[in-house]
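Dear Dr. K.,

Following up on our conversation at the group meeting, I've run the structure prediction for Casein kinase II subunit beta from Linum tenue. I'm pasting the input sequence below exactly as I used it, so you can double-check it against your construct before we proceed with anything downstream. Let me know if the numbering doesn't match what you have in your notebook.
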Amino acid sequence: MYHRDRGGAGSVSSRSELVGGPVDRKRINDALDKHLQKSSPSTSRGKDKERLSVPSTSAGKSQLDSRPASLSKNKCSDGDMFTEEQNELVESAAEMLYGLIHVRYVLTSKGMAAMLEKYKNYDFGRCPRVYCCGQPCLPVGQSDIPRSSTVKIYCPKCEDIYYPRSKYQGNLDGAYFGTTFPHLFLMTYGHLKPQKATQSYVPRVFGFKLHKS
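The predicted structure tokens came back this morning:
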């Protein structure tokens, strides 16, 4: 059938060259087929794709995870650029800007409509004067210049101003409402303007009126 070479290193090459017979060829073909199936390009590529997909996903995930960290780091670094005094100045300037925008807004039609609802709900308080009988008031400023005075409440019945009872309202700058708002409001909604108070308090001593002098 075939000639065996019992030599050491040359035995493998002599076998491959001197193989003959159908049985041995079939075995060799089967062995080659198995070897090709194990090392086929499609299989190896599929495995390579699987291997590559894992690191690519993890890399993408790590990049996504690193983005918020970098953004938060930048935010922290930006916040650290300002001192505490500078932050207070920025907040104060932002508050003033909002107030100056607000004083213009309440003079518009939309602002008036919003303030009308608050006026009907007594959000600005009532007049503390007894003879005004709980007349709802409107906010007013004594000056249009910021930081001149705090906001006051204006009574359209006695036409006088008072300190608001709410501490929160009392801390607001009067310039954020201005000197124009309550009067323009009553001109816009004329039907809400009450009649001027005619009754006033008369001081007496033992039932007698005091002389004005």
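Two things stood out to me. The longest strand covers residues 152-155. Helices lie at 11-18, 22-38, 41-79, 84-105, 109-120, 167-170, 181-188.

Best regards,
J.T.
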